[in-house]
Amino acid sequence: MADNSQALEPVLNYVNASLSYLYHSFLSIPGSSILIRYVRSSYQNDPLRTLLEIILLLFALRTILQSRTRADRAAKNYVQLSESEIDELVDDWVPEPLVAPLSPAEQAQLNALPIISGPAGPKVKLMQSGKTVLNLTSYNFAGLAGNEHIKEQAIGALRKYGVGSCGPPGFYGTIDVHMQLEQDLANFLGSESAIIYSQAFSTASSVIPAFCKRGDIIVADRGVSFALQKGIQISRTTVRWYDHNDLASLEEVLVSVEKEMKKKRAPLTRRFIVSEGVFENDGQMVDLPKLIELKQKFKYRLVLDESISFGSVGRTGRGLTELYNVPATHIDMLVGSMATGLNSAGGFCAGSHVVTEHQRDNGTAFVFSAALPALLAVSASEAIGILRDNPGCLRELVENVRVVRGVLDRLECIEIPSHPASPLIHIYVRNSPATLEVPNGIARKTNKSKPNSLVPADPDVFDIESEERLLQDVVDEALAQGVLISRVKRLRGQEALEPRPSIKIAVTAGLSRKETEKAAGVIRAALLKVLGKRR
Amino acid sequence: MAFPTSSGSSLFKLSKKSSQRFTPSAQEYLASLKAADDDALAREQARSHSPTPARESYAHTTGTNYAPSIASTPALSFASTAASTISTPTTHAAQLEEDDDPLLVPDTPPTSNDPPPTALHSEFGYCNNEQYRYTSSYRPGTSLLPQHQDPPMTILLATYISYLFLIAIGHMRDFFGKRFWPAYYKHLQPADGYAALNGDFDSFYTRRLKLRIVDCFSRPVTGVPGRTILMYNRVSPDFNVTFKLTGQLTRALNVSSYNYLGFAQATGGVADAADESIRRYGLSALGPRLEAGTQDLHQAAEALVARFLGMEDAMVVSMGFATNSTTLPAMVSRGSLVISDEYNHASIRTGVRLSGASVRLFKHNDMSSLEQILRESISQGQPRTHRPWKKILVVVEGLYSMEGTFIDLPGLMELKKRYHFYLYIDEAHSIGAIGPHGRGVCDYFGVDPREVNILMGTFTKSFGAAGGYIAGNKVLIDRLRTINHSFAYAESVSPPVLTQLTAAMASIMGVAPPLPPAAVGAPGTLIPASAPYVHPGPAPASILPQWMHLPPLLLSGQEGATRLRRLAFNSRYLSQGLRKLGFIIYGHRDSPIVPLLIFNPGKMPVFSRLMLAANTHPNAVPFVVVIVAYPATPLITSRVRFCMSASHTKADVDRLLRACDKVGDLLDLKHGIPKGERWTVEEVVDRAVELVKME
Description:
Chain A: Its cofactor is pyridoxal 5'-phosphate. Chain A: Residues 132-522 form the Aminotransferase class I/classII large domain. The structure holds 2 protein chains of 2 kinds. Chain A is α/β, with parallel strands linked by helices. Chain A folds into 2 domains: 104-144 and 392-432 and 447-532, Aspartate Aminotransferase, domain 1, CATH 3.90.1150; 148-390, Aspartate Aminotransferase, domain 2, CATH 3.40.640.10. Chain A is 48% helix and 12% strand. Chain A has helices at 2-28, 32-45, 47-65, 71-74, 83-92, 104-111, 148-161, 169-173, 176-189, 200-211, 226-235, 247-264, 288-298, 320-323, 353-362, 364-367, 374-389, 392-408, 464-480, 513-534, and strands at 116-117, 123-126, 132-135, 193-197, 217-221, 238-242, 271-276, 301-305, 333-337, 347-351, 414-415, 424-429, 483-484, 486-487, 503-506. Chain A is elongated and about 115 Å long. Chain B has 3 domains: 2-89, no CATH class; 140-254 and 560-695, Aspartate Aminotransferase, domain 1; 286-511 and 528-543, Aspartate Aminotransferase, domain 2. Chain B is α/β, with parallel strands linked by helices. Chain B contains 22 helices and 16 strands. The two termini of chain B are 40 Å apart. The chains are: A alpha/beta, B alpha/beta. At the A-B interface, α5, α6, β1, α7 and α8 of A face α1, α3, β1, β2 and α7 of B.
């Protein structure tokens, strides 16, 4: 033993010497004494703490050194494989086909899509049959399609600007007509400013993630359109859902969120209510004054998608704000479409300067996309001018909506969920004639829906396949009689909550009252023929 | 043809005649707008004076054009100025111009022997010298790895210090600002129970760094984004927080727009076709494709795109961004893996995020990095469960818009044979711009496009239109038609846009009949010898709408072929020339996107402003340039990005090289090659043809 310790002595001495050398050189670093004092005092108070801190430090170092892409390799269940094993696995791997081929039925449906030969408008010539039919499916609410004045102005713009803008707005794609259109939109709506996007669908799904970040709260309607769903999805915000177009449910959700936040003592975050003016999915209309009252009471910001209602609702087409006589400044982000209401292309978001300027740097679809072609911006500006100056065209629209509803409302084989004033009319197949359900379904909620889940407490029960087949028969029958309507095409499996199959009628001021009456009659006859047979 | 073909010089005066033709409508337009406008705007207009007649300032009046004194213009509101200036025909100012303005009149006007010009010189430059042509195709053996040259340490250090300095100053300004000028920070603070829409930390970069140079972005323009562009002069009374238009316009050489083949034109055969289509079809298809928003024009365009690319089928979408973001979710979903280049565009990232698929990134254009990831992901399978991936989609871009690099397609195709992944190439910038026939990277590398599963591209760039396409086999495209978001919910492509792209594409391909396919492709067009792939021939006349009548030069494909060869020459000349001058240039030599590295954040705005001011040397013309910095690029490698176009003449590129040479000396940007190997700018200009042929 003694021999052993003697043999070890020089080693121990060496270790001792080098340790004391390290200690002294550590002391010579300025500020090291503070660290030592800190460690000492903390050790006195709590010996475990030092250990914990060292572990924490090591952990932090590990996290920093570990690159993100290599996380898989470090993961516990990474399987170490030899090169030849990998080769074998590579050889064996058979990927699924990129997409599943269409079934014959789907192919037939795709091939049967109506193709318009020549201009789209209230009366269109179909390529397949060569017949001219009345068009009640295209968005042409104010009847601006084919307007000669707009066409002339567009040609003027073409001859000055060419077609494409050849660049994103940040890089010489901001053309004077874009600034003019933004100003026109803001003036028309009475908001502070507006920003335009080059596709309506991408507007909503870009506006939401520009403001709503992780940790923020969105309270959204269960029936919002696909574009809004995608915007909500990509924003990665905490979402709470309220029953479709049920503001009592909204209030409950707002109260529950408030409670939850208080309980968690969560810091103040951005909170948004997301809804639509006229819902694209069923034509219901939101009670805007009540919605604004709630938003102000609970201090939320409101994202209102007026893609359908802008250019179609209100005395001059300003949308719900005009219908309910609410200042547009009460809506923080008013999203709209220039493709539906103005028969041009693109979308917009109107709001305060802070809101629009923020999007110029952070709206992905704005920053990373080429600007709207100048001639389409000019035609949108012109369309606004026409709406503003001729309230008559929307009076005709209101009249035509009344005509269609007059013909269809009393039918027993269908349900119409749409608001009586909505120019977009959806038609459901009525399941059983016994249950006369109120479309606005506020009354008979037995149990409450969970705000965390997208599925409402008592979801509508319907058989997608059979209803779609019936509705398609109605569409085909109407087309045979000279009226073009369409079954609403849904991306089944991709929608957050499967919407009920429906037929969509977009009433237009482009048709006279008589023509509308005739078309509605044809649709009624087709509905009776197909759905009446069923029973 | 819209033009008299008697003599060239008369054409360049045509602008005045054409201005008279359009002025009344423009004035009517304004009058109706004004009359109808509501009180607010009317009041604003009453307050402001009408702007001084737009007198374009050029190099001859250097200095005054860049920073006009604020006193000379009354306080105009932004909006009212925009409204009034629309009425000012751009060509009105041209009447006041001297006849020898190089932006409006060719340096060497055509003689009676030359073929007459077919376009306005301001939109599409006249260049008749057959020497200034080149064919864009891959030379086997050229390295495709990104050659990213590092700057000297001093520059690197200075750049980091600059950023530190900017950040420190920014925080100081915030610190004092919040205490002394709280009103400016109100919208960044929680107020009245609402959280700030935009936190002061989140917006720090925008407020304290970008704001300093924001005058170099989003400059308002008017007219055609062709060879030249008209820019509104603006001044900022409050350090770039707001801008006021002075009412004056500057015509500048445009080396920034994505106008590779120069089809951004308001005159000529393609524009005439678009004009006709507005008369016939109006402006909108009035709905999504799947709900009666399909017109015969859409079908024609899709057939033509498929034919152009040599694919079985294609579909068109109304927005380039949405082409990626709404179709990627239709192809991949949870359980699939997307392997994406680290520099892929935001639209791809959006699409992948929406799809729910897993994502892994590989190093930019580095095939060994990709292979390593492929081996690892196939062998490991899905995380945790180790189940095999349902499918693997590799997403790359043909030409990277910030780097100027081409995808290493030969390397990628080899990997594809081995690893059975699906390949998605985003050709937003490469389609129409590269390859001997303009068919993009497949054409450039001589790869059969049908070996690629999905070709995606946009019409905004080379075709002067808007929107994008997806091409693939019929099974794929038919399925995508039924399940992509845009077809079900978004507006379909507008008729004039469709016509523009159809006409432009047809004129690149040539149309047969009436002319036999042999006439397509100018002499000198060569296909790489090893290529097993023969590009698809001219467009069958039956695809095009009956009413579309293109002029003979476009029908024969001659014009398209010339444009391709001019673009190839210009791109290579600029890229090689700048390298010879000593700049650090990224990307491949055939790329029409030429990034010039600046590094230092302080030099970026100065570069942009100097190029626009055009006062570095006599006879300089103004240039509009694009500067890009973080977050679009890595923090350190701020750059200027030039986009070449077929519409530029050799003289235009000479001007650009001269201007860069001067500014480069001034800003100390030449760190690419040692002094001894550099050429003088005169040497570069004189030996241009030789330079272009060099490797």
